[in-house]
Amino acid sequence: MDIRVHDAPESLPMRDAAEVAARLRRWVPLGGEIAQAWSTAGRVVEHGGRYPACQFDEAGLPLVQMRALIAELRPVLSSSGIVGWLGTPCAALGGLRPADLLQTAPEAVLDAARQHAAEARAVA
Question: DSSP state, 31?
Fold first, then answer.
């Protein structure tokens, strides 16, 4: 069974720290550092200083489900690996990318993350 994911899919929309802060549309005490603070707290993931847009809601805040998703995948994937997993078509999601379903079907994405983590542990 092939459980590889791309390190950083080119098609996944990404934002830098300044763009993350700007999307909040309100005064933010940490400014451009807010994205890194969220990453350190396990609320979002980043790759090369950029953050997948799919993990933020319309107001610019991290999606609640990201914390659980990161907790499931962190033991088997790096932050960059999680970014790659978000942008890679997933058989458990009918061939769709987790990024495409994160807001509309968060439980299905979390189930797919659990399955991926279990498969990765079985291979290791």
Answer: G
Number of domains in the chain: 1
The C-alpha angle with vertex 29 and arms to 49 and 66, in degrees rounded to 5, equals 50
**DSSP-assigned letters across all residues of 55-74:** GB-TTSPBPTHHHHHHHHHT
Q: What is the pLDDT of residues 18-55, one digit of tens each?
A: 888 888 766 666 667 889 999 999 999 999 999 999 99
**Could you give the angle at which helices 65-73 and 106-123 cross, rounded to 10 degrees?**
10
Instruction: Kindly state the helix (H) or strand (E) to which residue 17 belongs, with its residue range.
Output: helix 17-23
| Bridge partners, 106 (sequence order) | none
pTM of the model as a whole: 0.84
Q: Which of 59, 67, 50 is nearest to 102 (CA)?
A: 67
In a domain, 6, yes or no: no
